[in-house]
User: Fold MSHA biogenesis protein MshK from Agarivorans aestuarii.
Amino acid sequence: MAKSFFWVLLGCLLMTSNGYASTLSDPTAPPNSRKHNNTTKRAALPSLQAIIVGGEQPGAILNQRFVAVNQNISGFTLSRLHQDYVVLARAGKQYKIKLDKVSVKRITVQGQ
Assistant:
C-alpha cells in the first residue's frame, strides 16, 4: 500500500514539475535570445499596380482594386498621388510606395 502511494505521489510531482519547468526561462541565455510574447504583427503594404492622376476621379490600383484618394484599403488610407508613387497613411505614419518602372503604361484619353 505504501509503495503504490509513493508511486502515485511521485507521478503527481513529476506531472506538476513539468508544467512549472516549461514556464521558466534559461537564466544563462543571452538577453536577445529570449522570445517575447508581445510581438506585434505588421500589416503588409498593399501592392501598387497603377496610378490614375488625370480624369474625373484620381486614384490608384492597389491590390488589383481601384482606390480613390482618401479611401481605405487594408487599413491604409490613400492620401496623395504623384506620377510615379503614392502615399498611404495609417496610425499617424505615412508610407511611400513607388510604381515599378516596368509596369508604367501611358494611356491617353481623347480630348485631353
In short: The chain has a mean pLDDT of 77. The radius of gyration is 29 Å. Helices lie at 2-23.
